[in-house]
Amino acid sequence: MKNRQLIILVTSLIVIGVALFVYKSTVLDFPLVPDSSSESWRVEAKVGLESTEPATIAQLSLPQSEGNFGVVEEKFHSEDFGLTLSVNKQGGRLVTWSANNLAESRLNLYYQADVFRFKRAESPIGTARDPSQFLEWEFLVDSISDARQAALNSLQKKIDQRSATTDIYIRQAVSELTDETISEQEKLLLDDPTTKLPAAERADGIVLLLRMKGIPARAVRGLDLRKSGRRIEPVHWIEVWQDDNWQPYEIDTGTANIPDYYFAWWRGFPAVKVAKVDGGKLRNVTFSVRRISNPQYLASKALSAIKQDPIYNLTLFELPVDIQQVYRVLLMVPIGALVLIILRQFIGLRTFGTFTPVLVALSFRETNLLGGIILFTVIVAVGLMFRSYFEKLKLLSVPRLSAVLLVVIMLMVLSSVLLEMINVGSGVQVALLPMVILAMVIERMSVVWEEYGAKDSINRGLASLLAAILAYIVMSISYIQFIVFAYPELLLIVLAITILMGRYTGYRFLELYRFRSLVQQE
């Protein structure tokens, strides 16, 4: 019955720990190595306007999290304007600024956000999942000249004759308006027939040709995040409804899919502007892109916020920095304890106290290993001398231990002063040595000295120092420090291993060495 409970408990701890680790590392993209950074950018839109009426309203299309990109940390600077956020009928996000009786007529409005690029698509492209609203085209044809309408009909018929399937029609429509040479039909679509069809008009023309065939399509405007600067020109592409999803097409090459760093900002057909102003005049809209360096865990935070995943709340990255530093130390204690268990249960080292070497190892993190060993040896040796002297004074146990503690403190103070005098620079760190632990080590060594002799006492002292050194080495491995802090659920696996080792009752390695003569006799 007890073995069954043990198996269930250990298995449960391991399964929960591994499941949380795998979920955070694969689904939430938590970092697996220290100092890993994420691909992220800071994008900004500057809306310049001129107010001409008492009531002024400005509207700006906003990007949204979709595909591989996540938009977080949005900020608005609107001076004397109030703002509201909304969603249009096609699923696009909008911010509306409004103000009355502005003090200045020429103003600038700003929008800023951080954009993270995830390793895989976490949400569908766009938010509008009803393709029927992207089939309208008659309203545009009715508003253009007869010559342009005839040119569109001619292009549509030519493409239709060359296309046996819908997919071929899409590619033909895209490639038709991406050729370097301008056809007679295309010239009718241009205000200046000597120039190449602009990207925005090409995108609208392709969308119109697709809608005339009954294929849902829409034009997209965005930014190429590979570029950086204060005035970034938007890039254009189209999206076509295929296989119950929006498939992007690159209008310059006519190929399916777009560069990985094309970031959609707004959608509209015909070429709608990203911003508009009522009660004033829109002077300009400029975009800026700046690549920023962010730790990978911030991308995980952004992804968790987008997915509304509560698992991120179980991490330690959201704690204040000073508290994080405390936990970075505390989370190493179970790792040091695991090392100590192995040394005691399987190797057979006899140390003073159960966790005394681990706490001494923690002090080595502040004093460095060599300095810690020297100070530990000197303080324990001098403390033993004073403890022997106090024993001759026939002091009781508690006063004697208190006296030893006072001696340890005075020795530490003296060490700090001397180190500062010789400009070693470790005086402050010495104060972090566990004073009570040192006093207890001195007391235990004295008791063992009296009961079992000097040899046994010194051997245990050296074993405790050796265990502290090994624990320090393991606890100082930067990758272990990072992985335990990023994935504290791994301590559940450490707990399971500790429970399993607690059931070991076999011979220890040093016992096999001590009793080797019996084995030889047999």
What's the helix count?
Answer: 19
The helix content, as a percent range, equals 40-55%
Q: In whole angstroms, how far apart are the ends?
A: 37 Å
Q: What's the Cα radius of gyration?
A: 36 Å
| Main beta sheet strand tally, sense and closure | 4 strands, antiparallel
Instruction: Report strand order across the widest sheet.
Output: 3-6-1-12
Shape: elongated
Tell me how many strands there are: 12
**Residues in β-strands, percent:** 15-25%
Instruction: Please state the average pLDDT score.
Output: 81
Secondary structure class reads alpha+beta
Whole-number count of domains: 3
Question: Spans with pLDDT under 50 lasting ≥5 residues?
Answer: 190-195
Descriptive notes:
With 522 residues, this protein is an alpha+beta fold. Helices cover 49% and strands 20% of the residues. The strands form three sheets. Strands 3-6-1-12 form a four-stranded antiparallel β-sheet. A four-stranded antiparallel β-sheet has the order 4-5-2-11, with no helix packed on it. A hairpin with a 5-residue loop joins strand 4 and strand 5. The longest helix is centred in the N-terminal third of the chain and has 26 residues. The two termini are 37 Å apart.
